[in-house]
Amino acid sequence: RRLDILYLVYKDPGITVSGISEKMNNNFASISSHTNKLDNLVKKSDKNLLTISTVFPFTLFPNTVSIDPDKVTVTFKEFFASNNYQTVLIKEITNVEVQTDLFFGSLKIKDSGNRAHIMLVKFLKKKEAEKAREIIQGLIVGTKQGIDFTQFEPETLTKKVEELGQSAPQS
User: Fold this and answer.
1) For all residues of the chain together, what is the average pLDDT?
2) Are the beta carbons of 131 and 65 closer than 8 angstroms?
3) CB contact set of 52 (below 8 Å; sequence gap of 6+)
4) Residue 141: burial class (beta carbons within 10 Å; 0-12, 13-18, 19+)
5) Cβ atoms of residues 157 and 49 within 8 Å
6) Considering just the CA atoms, what is the radius of gyration of the chain in Å?
7) 152-157: long-range contacts at Cβ-Cβ below 8 A with a sequence spacing of 24 or more?
8) Distances 33 to 4, 24, 27, 29, 148 between C-alpha atoms, Å
9) Rounded to whole angstroms, how far apart are CA atoms 124 and 94?
10) Residue among 164, 155, 109, 92 nearest 135 (CA)
11) pLDDT per residue over 92-113, tens digit each?
12) What 3-state class would DSSP assign to 56?
């Protein structure tokens, strides 16, 4: 394809992008649009907003919760070098709640894709579990409003969605 484009440009140095598109029966504007969308997805997935872990020795192999603008990933460590990764998209989360006791918090995430499936992470530090819920809740609200999270630096985004999540009722 690249050689075909080079040949067209060599043959007609004044040819435009739309001219190349017509001759090759291709829509470069559409390709460019999809490339931009893919670049934005990569930008968003590189922005880790929060990672928290369960407390040792209450969990022998500490589990982790990682939150980015598009998804929440829970890594359940079952044994040495044995991990179970569960990911749910922010747009598919129907309920996020925190249950606390005197010292710990449990984070419970329910998604619309599998109503019977609930991700439950116990023995988190209480404050970290509450912060995770607020960030996830803020991301849910922002996603429903169509906010483009790629425009923010991770620190700013974390602060803004956490603030938004604090004002949102616990779902």
Assistant:
1) 86
2) no
3) 64, 65, 124, 125, 128, 129, 131, 132
4) middle
5) yes
6) 22
7) 154/47, 154/48, 154/49, 157/47, 157/49, 157/69
8) 22, 18, 10, 6, 16
9) 21
10) 164
11) 999 999 999 998 999 999 998 7
12) coil
Mean pLDDT value of segment 131-144: 96
pTM of the model: 0.74
* Band of pLDDT at residue 135, cut at 50, 70 and 90: very high
CB within 8 A of 50, min separation 6: which ones? 65, 66, 67, 131, 132, 135, 158
Question: pLDDT tens digits, residue range 52-65?
Answer: 999 988 888 999 99
Return the amino acid letter for 143: T
- Residue length, the chain? 171
Residue 151's pLDDT is what? 83
Residue 56, amino acid: F
C-beta of residue 94 within 8 angstroms of C-beta of residue 171: yes
Cis omega (within 30 of 0) for bond into 57: yes
- Indicate the pairing of strand 71-79 with strand 64-67: antiparallel
> Would the CA dihedral through 132, 134, 136, 139 be positive or negative?
negative
Q: How confident is the model at residue 28 (pLDDT cuts 50, 70, 90)?
A: low
